[in-house]
Amino acid sequence: MLIVMHHGATAAQIRAVEEAVEAMGLKAQPIPGSERTAIGVLGNQGFIDDATIRELPGVREVIHVSKPYKLVSRDFHPAPTVVEAGGVLVGEGLPPVIMAGPCSIESEAQMLASARLVKAAGAQILRGGAFKPRTGPHTFQGLGLEGLRYLRLAGDETGMPVVTEVMRIGQLEDVCRYADILQIGARNMQNFDLLKEVGKTSHPVLLKRGMSATIEEFLSAAEYILAEGNERVILCERGIRTFERATRNTLDLSVAALVRELSHLPIIVDPSHATGKRSLVPVMSRAALVAGAHGLMIEVHPEPEKALCDGAQSLNGEGFGELMEDLRGLMKYLGY
Ligand code: PEP
Ligand code: MN
């Protein structure tokens, strides 16, 4: 429920409404706006009888928000959120942010080479997986803690913040120590315990859409993080599973546009996992920016043919350099 106060409502009237909400055993969250103050009501299981609230002085209207996500919604938070991630700003009105790097951290030399080439091409944030959620147990599972060290080293050497996936709560302390941004992978989007724990940290979170998650489920997953007090969430569309097998996943670009209507959180697109094909990454990167994405996450490997994971969708240094050149032209055209 959202209680909208009159333009001239006094601080005492606002406080009285908050007290009335709290007396009902619910949580009141003031949402100051340039026009008028609203008070978000959290904690209800079902419909709330608003009769007493409506009668209070200064109350203009009471809106029942039936969405399972509230803190994430534009209803509760109309202004767009800009997330500061390791010194880089991601969000509405800012030039799209490019995160790039290998799928997995394979060695110190591979990570440093990757960092240098993505930096030289103009990426702002370095990615690399140390804990890998692989489909089968016999494939490379990531270097773990050793990988985190190489990632940090490469980020520091090239002056880029780093993002890496945390797969379970037991890894969180180490990942927080080495990374600037915590990635929650598609397979863990509904690992609610993990979401709650990352919500208790002060690290920005890159939340990837689950392979079969609806937009409502996606935004509800983000709600778990915000509900714990961490509002620094960047959403990431990375393709969903459909009947189509010609591409690895189906890039649901309409969500980039729709999420901007429904939520104040920034959303980026990962065209690498969405398509699974190197040849499609440049065109879908451009399409994502045209659709309004606030950034991209792109897999880049110095030698994709030798990559231990996701080589077929990884660009090499030259390919990524060309793409960045193209994107700069597009951003200029889009007015950034
Ligand atoms: C990744 O970014 O390396 C990854 C595993 O992505 P996703 O969770 O989207 O599959
Ligand atoms: Mn990958």
Regions with little confidence, pLDDT below 50 for 5+ residues? none
Strand order of the largest sheet: 13-12-11-10-9-8-7-14
Q: Give the H and E element order.
A: EHEEHEEEEHEHEHEHEHEHEHHEH
Bound molecules: phosphoenolpyruvate, manganese (II) ion
The number of strands is 14
Q: Helical segment tally?
A: 11
Helix content: 25-40%
Shape: elongated
Average pLDDT metric: 96
Report, as a whole number of angstroms, the end-to-end distance. 37 Å
Structural class: alpha/beta
Please summarize the sheet with the most strands: 8 strands, parallel
Strand content: 15-25%
Report the radius of gyration as a whole number of Å: 21 Å
In short:
This protein has 336 residues and is of the alpha/beta class.
Your description of this structure?
- α3 (108-121) packs parallel to α4 and α3 (108-121) packs parallel to α11.
- The chain is α/β, with parallel strands linked by helices and 336 residues long.
- The radius of gyration is 21 Å and the shape is elongated.
- Strands 13-12-11-10-9-8-7-14 form an eight-stranded parallel β-sheet. Strands 2-3-1-4 form a four-stranded antiparallel β-sheet, with helices on one face.
- The protein has helices at residues 11-23, 51-54, 108-121, 145-158, 172-178, 192-199, 215-227, 254-262, 271-275, 281-290, 317-333; strands spanning 2-5, 27-31, 38-42, 59-63, 83-85, 88-90, 97-101, 125-127, 162-165, 181-184, 205-208, 233-237, 267-269, 295-299.
- The mean pLDDT is 96.
- A hairpin with a 6-residue loop joins β2 and β3.
- The chain has eleven helices and 14 strands.
- Phosphoenolpyruvate binds at residues 103, 129, 133, 185-187, 208, 238, 273.
